[in-house]
Write a structure and sequence with these properties.
alpha+beta, 7-stranded mixed sheet, 14 strands, 54% helix
Length: 519
């Protein structure tokens, strides 16, 4: 296949390695050319200007000394200068108006007004006769020098001085030779380095492309390689995080499908049997109130599962973020205590409230969602703890990260089970056996914490379980808010002391905690 210019340009456009190498080479070449141009203008032209200045100086000296020297002295000087090498001494000639050389060491010069250049054979001696100006097309550069001449009028005649440009031309030749070596010496490494980096980049991009193809084919456990901390590595890191979330979502979906099929079997079975009984009763003309009530309960149970899943999905979508406002966790915790303290008392549980720390308790969020999360934890602690158990709500104030904690002194959870109970529809059988539920309570709590950009951790309360919810403090937590919060805290601690005699609200020392079991 013939290679055309369009083919080459298309390859350059599509091949990042080749394009980067060409860019590197072009940049280096342009930089060398610019450097050469600057060097040429500054050095070579500067040297020629120095030669021109020396010629002007000679004319000024000659003009000042014209009337000082006698004819004999001037003739003596001319003879002496003609005996010197023309390259070192320079050219000089006294030319009449017709262009004839009256005296000097060079023949063939004229009286031009500006600077001009010509070639002289410096291997010849000007002692016997002047050296003749050589035409440029017949110059032997091994014997001749390039000269710069300047004439100045002296009456009807003119005086011409010239200086050899041998050193300038020698330097020019050296510079050209140096550039001849410098360009390939600098250009080739730049090309090789650019191509190496480009091929290395292309290799990394190919590996990333391979990972993308594997992911698109269903291999969600592969990840993009990270070699350092450059732009591609940061892109790979962001992509890996997205893949983590994708894998987690797909895994959750698969688990959700499996668990839902298992969990819906029970309520559907509860519906099927009484539904058959209701059909038979209807066939013989008997009332079917009780079977239909059981059907209603089974359908309500199935609906509760879907409602909980739908609510978790809505929370995770982040749509509620637009309605976030500043929420005071102190007011939220105090309200929960006032509502659930009698409930816990009726269930033979003791609910406590403890406020610690000196800082902010205001977070930016949704008060209803935060309240729902805390309610789930309190109800779990009440449901799965033993009789006469203690449940504690604790608010830890902090200027940067206030915490809301629920803790109980029940059986707790094994360390390996704590991450699992946050998954949807997962239940820890040893704790939830015979207690009902669908394993969605803690999933909802985690969704609420995630949408608030907070953190949730399940810890050992020794004994019992401690669930710690950590939030980012709202910027509204100023010094005035801190002082007012401390005043509220002091008043609340006094309230705790005043109620400690009835045994319902105690202010025992111990870990400030939050509790929740895998619902």
């Amino acid at each position: 296949m013939a290679i055309t210019f369009q083919t080459v340009m298309e390859r350059v456009r599509r091949d990042i390695a080749l394009r980067s190498g060409l860019i590197s080479a072009t940049t280096t070449l342009v930089a060398l050319m610019l450097l050469s141009a600057v060097f040429w203008n500054v050095l070579i032209d500067g040297l020629e200007e120095r030669v021109a200045e020396s010629l002007l100086a000679r004319h000024e000296v000659a003009a000042r000394n014209t009337n000082v020297l006698s004819d004999e002295d001037r003739e003596l000087i001319r003879r002496f200068r003609r005996s010197l090498p023309i390259r070192d001494e320079g050219a000089f000639a006294w030319v009449d108006s017709s262009g004839n050389t009256l005296s000097g060491n060079v023949d063939g010069l004229d009286c031009r007004k500006d600077f001009y250049k010509g070639w002289l054979d410096v291997s010849q001696s000007a002692v016997e006769q002047p050296v003749t100006l050589i035409p440029e097309d017949s110059v032997d550069r091994s014997k001749a020098d390039r000269f710069m001449f300047l004439a100045r009028q002296r009456g009807e005649n003119c005086l011409v001085f010239g200086s050899s440009l041998h050193e300038v031309d020698k330097l020019r030749s050296g510079v050209l030779g140096l550039l001849g070596w410098l360009i390939p010496v600098c250009l080739l490494p730049a090309v090789f380095i650019g191509l190496y980096q480009s091929f290395k980049l292309r290799s990394r991009l190919r590996r990333l492309g391979t990972v993308v193809k594997q992911v698109s084919s269903g291999e969600l456990d592969v990840r993009m390689p990270i070699a350092g901390d450059d732009d591609i590595d940061r892109l790979a890191l962001s992509t890996n995080r997205s893949l983590d979330r994708l894998q987690e979502s797909v895994g959750t979906l698969q688990q959700l499908t499996s668990v839902m099929a298992h969990d819906l079997r029970a309520p559907l079975s509860r519906v099927a049997v009484p539904l058959d009984e209701a059909i038979r009763a209807n066939q013989i003309g008997q009332p079917a109130v009780e079977p239909l009530e059981e059907v209603k309960l089974g359908l309500a149970d199935a609906r509760s599962i879907f409602d909980a899943l739908l609510r978790i999905t809505q929370i995770e979508s982040g749509r509620r973020r637009s309605k976030f406002t500043d929420v005071d966790l102190f007011e939220l915790a105090e309200g929960l205590y006032e509502i659930y303290q009698p409930v816990c008392e009726d269930a033979d549980r003791t609910l406590e409230l403890e406020i610690t720390g000196h800082g902010a308790s205001v977070v930016h969020g949704d008060a209803d969602l935060l309240r729902q999360a805390a309610v789930n934890l309190i109800e779990n602690a009440t449901r799965y703890s033993r009789e006469n158990a203690y449940i504690r709500i604790c608010l830890v104030r902090d200027l940067d990260a206030p915490q809301l904690i629920v803790k109980d002194d029940g059986p707790g959870l094994p360390a390996e089970e704590r991450p699992r109970v946050l998954q949807r529809l997962y239940r820890y059988e040893a704790s939830t056996r015979g207690q009902g539920g669908h394993g969605l309570g803690l999933s909802l709590v985690k969704a609420v914490i995630d949408v608030h950009d907070g953190e949730i951790s399940l810890e050992d309360a020794e004994p019992g379980l401690l669930v710690r919810m950590t939030f980012k403090a709202s910027p509204v937590a100023s010094t005035d808010a801190l002082e007012s919060g401390e005043a509220i805290q002091d008043g609340h601690q006094a309230s705790i002391a005043s109620h400690s005699t009835d045994g319902v609200m105690s202010s025992r020392s111990g870990n400030v905690a939050s509790s929740d079991k895998g619902a």
